[in-house]
């Protein structure tokens, strides 16, 4: 089923999407999307949604199992408090991608903005995974509490793949960064570790899935290219807020 979003207000578009999903449609294509907000919010059905255009803020927020593919870029707040499902973005994405995400997977072919992965956390049997093909800006993985964040720095870009304050307030999960990383870029709560065999086996499978979904040719990713970041404590601010 196809829906033409040209000139359609975002509320009306989302009503059409919900009606299609409730009627049992399992494949839906949205054409001419131009900043329409809240697409896929709260959808629990096993539906595949293809977006041709640029969706607005809070794409896939609170989503519970759908798969969304974006042919171009996406704006801020992708996967906000997402529980399960998958979002694949073939361009760039804005700020706070994966905010408070609790499960599912978000794959971005290009770059992301500031505070991607903020407060991402595993919950019960849910385990979130975010992979960025290009680079991420400052405060990547801020207050991270669980799951996996990975930045691949693909495409031959020189320099570091992340900005400053990486993992500030981190108290769970793991971050993998490909390429150079200086100590001054890290939050005070972050520790640096080697990528072990078990880490690489899991990360290699994630990267293989990512490459299939975003259409990357398999690059010669090597374990030695990655830095593993882990929290130094599960209560980084325990003394600051409690006694």
Question: How would you summarize the topology of this molecule?
Answer:
Layout: E1 2-4, H1 10-22, E2 27-34, E3 48-54, E4 64-70, E5 84-89, E6 105-108, E7 129-132, E8 145-151, E9 172-178, E10 190-193, H2 197-214, E11 226-231, H3 238-241
Parallel strand pairs: 1-2, 2-3, 3-4, 4-5, 5-6, 6-7, 7-8, 8-9
Antiparallel strand pairs: 9-11, 10-11
Q: Would you kindly provide a brief summary of this structure?
A:
With 243 residues, the chain is an alpha/beta fold. The protein is built from 3 helices and 11 strands; from the N terminus they run βαβββββββββαβα. Strands 1-2-3-4-5-6-7-8-9-11-10 form an 11-stranded mixed beta sheet, sandwiched between helices.
Q: What do you see in this structure?
A:
The protein has a domain at 92-241: Glutamate synthase, alpha subunit, C-terminal domain (Pectate Lyase C-like, 3 Solenoid), CATH 2.160.20. Helix 1 links the parallel strand 1 and strand 2 (27-34). The protein has an eleven-stranded mixed sheet, with helices on both faces. The chain has three helices and eleven strands; from the N terminus they run βαβββββββββαβα. The protein has helices at 10-22, 197-214, 238-241; strands spanning 2-4, 27-34, 48-54, 64-70, 84-89, 105-108, 129-132, 145-151, 172-178, 190-193, 226-231. Helix content is 14%, strand content 26%. The model has no long low-confidence stretch (mean pLDDT 94). By secondary structure, it is of the alpha/beta class.
């Amino acid at each position: 089923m196809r829906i033409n979003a040209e000139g359609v207000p975002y509320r009306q578009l989302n009503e059409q999407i919900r009606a299609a999903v409730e009627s049992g449609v399992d494949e839906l294509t949205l054409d001419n999307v131009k900043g329409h907000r809240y697409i896929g919010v709260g959808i629990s059905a096993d539906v595949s949604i293809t977006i041709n255009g640029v969706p607005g803020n809070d794409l896939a927020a609170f989503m519970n199992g759908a798969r969304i593919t974006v042919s171009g870029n996406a704006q801020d707040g992708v996967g906000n408090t997402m529980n399960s499902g998958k979002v694949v973005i073939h361009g760039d994405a804005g700020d706070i991608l994966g905010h408070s995400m609790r499960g599912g997977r978000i794959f971005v072919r290009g770059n992301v903005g500031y505070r991607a992965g903020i407060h991402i956390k595993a919950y019960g049997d849910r385990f979130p995974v975010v992979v960025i093909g290009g680079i991420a800006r400052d405060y990547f993985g801020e207050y991270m509490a669980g799951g996996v964040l990975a930045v691949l720095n693909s495409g031959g870009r020189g320099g570091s793949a992340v900005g400053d304050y990486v993992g500030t307030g981190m108290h769970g999960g793991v971050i993998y960064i490909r390429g150079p990383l200086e100590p001054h870029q890290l939050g005070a709560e972050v520790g640096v570790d080697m990528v072990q065999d078990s880490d690489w086996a899991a990360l290699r499978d994630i990267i293989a899935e990512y490459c299939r979904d975003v259409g990357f040719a398999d690059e010669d990713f090597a374990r030695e290219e990655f830095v593993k970041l882990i929290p130094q404590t599960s209560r980084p601010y325990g003394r600051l807020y409690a006694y």
